[in-house]
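Weekly sync, protein design subgroup
Attendees: M.S., D.O., the rotation student, P.L. (late)

Item 1: inverse folding check
M.S. brought a backbone from last month's batch and wanted to see whether the design step gives back something sensible before we order anything. D.O. pointed out we never logged the input encoding, so this time it goes straight into the notes. Structure tokens as presented (306 positions):
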């Protein structure tokens, strides 16, 4: 049984106080009124959402002497490994300038995406103890997983920013807007998928294992350890390249590289990157709405299935 299944007395007391105890409300079935109802419910319990995010973070480093410091040491170790082992020893910098910065841009995006997907997928099952004891908007648990992932992203991004300053290649100021835009895109897209998977995972537990395999494949289908310029040289604008560029993770990784990877100023990027980003954003909004409606239909039997 996970840490989430056994909340301590204080946590349960706080959840009861902030979540409304055993009170239940019937959500409207309308396509838009139901979504609006869910948004209001989460907003009214935003203090509880903050509590759950803190609980997610504390559970991750429970019984650890350094606690949250590990969230800083891990990306630092990753950066040094790629800089020394891959960039220097394996000579990756010969084809990709400042390889460590290049790959860390992609890893920063990928870590956020994978943590949101993995965390939200298991969020309902992982909080079975709370779900069976109190009533509160179920969407709050996937959102708490997103909040925890965003905290880790902030730490990793600070490491990336510090690294660009240390090597003397600060971000492009004229392209800095790619970073917040990309963050919104990848967070909304991942949350839409994760919200849907979190509900399905209650009924089909194999989903969380399938997600691990899909994430592994998707990692290598994104320009994280290789450049888009290399992909373009091989595929030459073919339909396969268009499929490659249809991957939202690819779009966001390229946005971060465009902004944070100064040494790659002369590297090739898709000419329609902004348009593709806008399309991803619109798709993400539609995905979140669809996922929430499916989630609302399935959540009625969560307690029984758990």
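Designed sequence read out in the meeting:
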């Amino acid at each position: 049984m996970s840490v989430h299944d056994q909340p301590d007395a204080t946590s349960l007391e706080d959840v009861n106080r902030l979540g409304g105890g055993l009170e239940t409300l019937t959500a409207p079935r309308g396509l838009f009124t139901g979504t609006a109802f869910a948004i209001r419910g989460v907003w009214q319990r935003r203090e509880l959402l903050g509590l759950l995010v803190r609980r997610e973070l504390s559970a991750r480093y429970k019984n650890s002497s350094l606690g949250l410091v590990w969230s800083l040491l891990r990306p630092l170790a990753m950066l040094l490994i790629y800089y020394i082992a891959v960039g220097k020893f394996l000579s990756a910098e010969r084809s990709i300038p400042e390889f460590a910065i290049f790959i860390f841009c992609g890893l920063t995006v990928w870590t956020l995406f994978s943590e949101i997907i993995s965390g939200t997928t298991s969020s309902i099952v992982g909080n079975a103890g709370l779900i069976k004891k109190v009533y509160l908007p179920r969407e709050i648990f996937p959102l708490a997983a997103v909040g925890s992932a965003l905290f880790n992203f902030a730490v990793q991004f600070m490491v990336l920013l510090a690294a660009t300053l240390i090597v003397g290649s600060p971000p492009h100021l004229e392209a800095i807007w790619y970073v917040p835009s990309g963050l919104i895109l990848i967070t909304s897209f991942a949350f839409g998928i994760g919200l849907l998977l979190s509900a399905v995972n209650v009924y089909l537990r194999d989903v969380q294992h399938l997600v691990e395999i899909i994430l592994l494949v998707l990692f290598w289908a994104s320009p994280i350890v290789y450049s888009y310029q290399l992909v373009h040289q091989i595929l030459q604008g073919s339909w396969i390249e268009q499929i490659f560029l249809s991957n939202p993770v690819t779009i966001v990784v390229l946005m971060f590289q465009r902004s944070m990877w100064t040494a790659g100023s002369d590297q090739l990027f898709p000419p329609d990157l902004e348009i593709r980003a806008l399309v991803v954003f619109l798709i993400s909004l539609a995905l979140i709405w669809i996922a929430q409606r499916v989630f609302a239909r399935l959540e009625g039997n969560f307690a029984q299935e758990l």
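Discussion: The chain has one domain: 31-300. The chain has 15 helices and no strands.
Action: P.L. to compare against the previous round before Friday.
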